[in-house]
UniProtKB/TrEMBL annotation:
GO terms for biological process: translation. It comes from the Eukaryota. GO terms for cellular component: mitochondrial large ribosomal subunit. Signal peptide: none annotated. GO terms for molecular function: structural constituent of ribosome. Transmembrane segments: none annotated. Belongs to the bacterial ribosomal protein bL17 family. Residues 77-89 have a biased composition (Low complexity). HAMAP family: Ribosomal_bL17. Gene3D superfamilies: Ribosomal protein L17. Residues 66-100, 231-250 are annotated as: Disordered. This is Ribosomal protein L17. It comes from Kwoniella bestiolae CBS 10118. Keywords: Ribonucleoprotein, Ribosomal protein.
Length: 311
């Protein structure tokens, strides 16, 4: 009979392992996106599912269990409040976006916001994205996110995939992206299945947002092609196979781009790696209203109050 195989040991003693998982689960519920190693991600996602289930129950025993598991301790003040000697320094720390202020309690978010968000979902509140390997020990990295949240990576990346795949359908039928029905005709079976899974528990407003994101990315691909069409030198051979010939999703002039490659002047946030990094980063102080839309070659962001005619 085998014992002690219900969870990974993670190379730690029981007390250290329990404290690690408590910290990871609390960080996941607070930030809704964390990056860690793959074994830790799987264990943290498993425990987060149980904690969210306690939040959906909403009973006093479930509240007591959640209070005993989540960190920081809910009866103690914030670490910044206990270490700050003056109210001015505390106010400055709270207004600084680069300074992390931990919440005093995660119970309001768990029993109010998350319980309402997942009221109709029977399970599967977390999603794990593999994120390469860590430099140094080559440990596998992963990103754990809460589904249907504001930082859901799959919602954004799948919308871009739908926008890119819809260009082929538009080229064949000559229609508009708004005319593509809710069945998502023209998509690959696997992509259509993923769209149905992502939008299964979404509201009508979120479904419209998904289609808007897909259309914006489709427009971006077309604008990028027209903007860079004359910059790249044409070297497409006439012996190129049919599936490699220029079309809606491939450049009409110049060489074919490889996976992960970007053109000069194109922001890295358009790639999957840049998207994941941007979701994990915090906005620096004073840059909340900065226009982050991508710029094409030859364009630049002008300072506030300076017009193009002056430059």
């Amino acid at each position: 009979m085998k014992h002690g195989i219900n969870q990974r040991k993670l190379g730690r003693m029981p007390a250290h392992r329990i404290a690690l998982l408590r910290n990871l689960v609390s960080a996941l519920l607070h930030h809704e996106t964390i990056k860690t190693t793959l074994p830790k991600a799987k264990e943290a996602a498993r425990m987060a599912e149980k904690i969210i289930t306690l939040g959906k129950k909403g009973t006093n025993p479930s509240r007591s269990k959640a209070m005993a598991y989540l960190m920081p301790p809910h009866n103690s003040p914030s670490p910044i409040a206990s270490s700050s000697s003056s109210s001015s320094s505390l106010l400055e720390a709270e207004n600084d976006d680069e300074h992390f202020v931990p919440p005093k309690s995660l119970l309001p978010k768990l029993f109010d916001e998350l319980s309402l968000r997942y009221a109709e979902r029977p399970g599967g509140y977390t999603r794990i994205h593999k994120f390469g390997r860590r430099q140094g020990d080559n440990a596998p990295h992963a990103i754990v996110t809460l589904v249907d949240g504001p930082r859901d990576l799959k919602f954004e990346m799948l919308a871009r995939e739908v926008g890119k795949s819809s260009l082929d359908l538009l080229e064949q039928k000559g229609g508009k992206l708004e005319e593509v029905g809710e069945g998502w005709e023209g998509l690959k079976p696997r992509t259509r299945l993923q769209v149905e899974k992502v939008l299964k528990y979404k509201s009508e407003g979120e479904r419209r947002e998904f289609k808007v994101k897909a259309k914006e990315f489709a427009d971006y691909i077309q604008a990028e092609e027209s903007a860079y069409g004359g910059v790249r030198s044409p070297n497409v051979s006439p012996d190129t196979p049919a599936y490699r010939r220029p079309g809606m999703n491939t450049p009409k002039t110049g060489r074919l781009l490889h996976a992960g490659e970007r053109l000069s002047g194109v922001s890295t946030h358009t790639t999957g790696l840049g998207l994941a990094r941007g979701a994990l980063a915090r906005t620096p102080r004073g840059r909340q209203n900065v226009d982050k839309s991508p710029r094409f070659w030859g364009q630049a962001r002008l300072p506030e109050g300076v017009s193009a005619e002056v430059v």
